[in-house]
Amino acid sequence: MQDTVTIVGNVATDPTQGRTASGVPVTNFRLASTHRRFDDATQTWVDVSTNWYSVAAFRQLAENTKASLRSGDSVIVTGRMKIRSWENNGKQGTSVDIDADAIGHDLRWGTAAYRRNPRSASNDQSRGHTAPDRDDRDDRDEGSVAGDAAGSGVEGEVDTSWASTDRDAPDFDDEFASAISSR
Questions:
Q1: CATH top-level class for 3-105?
Q2: pLDDT in tens, the chain (183 residues)
Q3: Which segments of the chain belong to CATH 2.40.50.140?
Q4: Cα–Cα distance for residue pair 10/33, rounded to 1 Å
Q5: Half-sphere exposure of 148 (CA within 13 A, CB side)
Q6: DSSP letters of 23-35?
Q7: How much is the pTM?
Q8: Would the CA dihedral through 66, 72, 74, 80 be positive or negative?
Q9: Distance between CA 42 and CA 52 in Å, rounded?
Q10: Would you state the pLDDT for residue 117?
Q11: What phi and psi values does residue 25 have, to the nearest 5 degrees?
Q12: Exposed, middle or buried by CB within 10 Å (0-12, 13-18, 19+), for 106?
């Protein structure tokens, strides 16, 4: 049985990276989700219980997870949950695994500086897009959102006043830039 779940918790182990037998990148880490309640007697928050999950991220998500997460980070993980029984050296137990679809920092507890990966043909094909010819991209400003909107044939300019000046603006997909400018 596989259910899609969203878990909020803390990275309990530094992510480790490997490859599947077919060469697909995979990054694994343990996730701790601690439940708390307010104790009226002491007027403080107390930890009640912790659920533990084994998280696996594949392909580009694996690469980004390894580069972005460290033990102790507050994260939100969405993926397919699998519950399985195990036995090892006479010990038995149950493991709750999550095959991650998306992982992000929980911004309630800190800040993050998002940096979009450069587009590649393999990324576009996995999303059902075809990569534009290099000649089509030469007249665009690679680091600006407005350049992407103009290069995609979309009239108008995308408002980037929200973007921090100390990092590059994200390289939006043409569809996303089109949707923003049509608002």
A1: mainly beta
A2: 578 999 999 999 999 999 999 999 999 999 999 999 999 999 999 999 999 999 999 999 999 999 999 999 999 999 999 999 989 999 999 999 999 999 999 999 888 888 888 876 655 555 554 444 434 333 333 333 333 333 333 344 444 334 333 333 334 344 444 444 444
A3: 3-105
A4: 6
A5: 23
A6: --EEEEEEEEEEE
A7: 0.62
A8: positive
A9: 27
A10: 83
A11: -65, 140
A12: middle
Distance of alpha carbon 7 from alpha carbon 34, whole angstroms = 10
Q: Which two tokens stand for residue 151?
A: 């290069």
**Residue 72 contacts residue 13 (beta carbons within 8 Å):** no
**What is residue 122's DSSP assignment?**
H
Task: Determine the Cα–Cα distance for residues 164 and 161; give it in Å rounded to an integer.
Answer: 8
Residue 75 CA, chain-centre distance (Å), reads 9
Q: What local confidence, expressed as pLDDT, does residue 71 receive?
A: 95
Q: What was the pLDDT predicted at 123?
A: 54
Q: Which residues contact 140 (CB under 8 A, 6 or more apart)?
A: 147, 148, 150, 151
**Exposed, middle or buried: residue 30 (CB in 10 Å: 0-12, 13-18, 19+)?**
middle
Q: Are strands 91-105 and 44-58 parallel, antiparallel or unpaired?
A: parallel
Structure tokens at 78: 């969405």
Contact 137, 150 (CB under 8 A): no
CA distance 81 to 62: 17
Q: Is 131 within 8 Å of 120 (Cβ atoms)?
A: yes
Tokens describing residue 144: 């600006």
Structure token digits, residue 97: 């695994």
